[in-house]
Design goal:
The protein is α+β, with helices and mostly antiparallel strands and about 290 residues long. Helices cover about 35% and strands about 20% of the residues. It has ten helices and eleven strands. It has a five-stranded antiparallel sheet with strand order 9-6-5-10-11. The chain is globular, with a radius of gyration of 20 Å. The mean pLDDT is about 95.
């Protein structure tokens, strides 16, 4: 599954039903901007799009690309095959963690994290620069935001106008993660159980999705932007103020579930990944990401 070092996000995504998968193309590198634009046109992908490596970790090289200039800049940095994905313009974003033991017929949702994108709200007095630097979360992203909003930093933002600073729902990029486990219902588990069974060999992981409403989330009427394997965490534990002791308990359960799924799969003939191979994959991945 996507989300583990060395595994293709694209190969996982393409197994999902068309109804819940945004249009996505895979691009080999090196490549000219012109060729990517031609592929986008052929695939029906207008700007904005999301570009991201065909493997990844914690938002590495995931970018919202607004135009040809942004695309050219991205191509100068990316060194491995990457995905160009339709930007999903739906208001709600969640990470939905799911498990099904290989010995069981049905699985269930174990965690839901809601994502509040990094933003500021104007007061009619302060500039965008001042609003960014007044918030701890956005201040930590200042180096990136200073470049992104270079032509708007002195702009006075009208009262109650919200400016989204980052469209990528990643904790490392300032997104606030919220514990939404109260949304877990039998219907929601059944919906994601049905989606998961389209992916061969998928028993454990996290769906990163967008939905138009909570009702559509429960019914599985979502767009799956990414499906992560056992490298993904039950991210509701990052809710501000979430107890450290409770978080550790969640992680211990999470790791125990990974172990049980692994053992059951092995008993069914799945090979364990040799330590040497795993270490080699990790080293190659670390080498790639350190260049960003």
């Amino acid at each position: 599954m996507g989300g583990m070092f060395g595994e293709s996000k694209f190969d996982t995504l393409k197994q999902l039903p068309d109804t819940c998968r945004p249009t996505t193309i895979r691009v080999e590198v090196p490549v000219l901007t012109k060729k990517v634009l031609e592929a986008m046109a052929e695939g029906g992908l207008p700007f904005p799009v999301i570009c991201k490596p065909d493997l990844g970790e914690r938002g590495w090289m995931v970018k919202k690309i607004q135009n040809e200039k942004d695309l050219s800049a991205y191509l100068q940095k990316i060194q491995i095959p990457f995905l160009v994905q339709a930007f999903v313009d739906l208001p709600l974003e969640y990470g939905v963690s799911y498990i099904r033991y290989p010995s069981d017929e049905r699985g269930h949702v174990t965690s839901i994290v809601g994502k509040e994108m990094l933003s500021v709200t104007g007061n009619g007095v302060n500039s965008l620069r001042e609003l960014i630097l007044a918030q701890d979360r956005s201040k930590l992203q200042w180096e990136l935001l200073e470049q992104r909003f270079a032509d708007r930093l002195v702009e006075i933002i009208p009262r109650d106008k919200r400016i989204e600073l980052n469209a990528i729902g990643n904790h490392c990029l300032g997104t606030k993660f919220l514990n939404e486990n109260h949304l877990i219902t039998a219907q929601l588990s059944a919906s994601f159980d049905a989606i998961s069974k389209h992916v061969d060999g998928f028993y454990f992981g996290r769906f990163d999705v967008r939905a138009s409403s909570i009702a559509n989330l429960e019914q599985g009427n979502v767009m799956v932007m990414e499906l992560n394997g056992c490298g993904a965490e039950p991210s509701h534990i990052y809710h501000p103020g979430f107890s450290l002791f409770k978080a550790m308990g969640v992680l211990f359960t999470h790791w125990a579930d990974i172990y049980r799924v692994s053992v059951e799969n092995h008993e069914r003939g799945a090979e364990y990944l040799p330590y040497r191979e795993a270490w080699s994959i990790y080293r190659n991945f670390s080498k790639l990401t350190s260049t960003d």
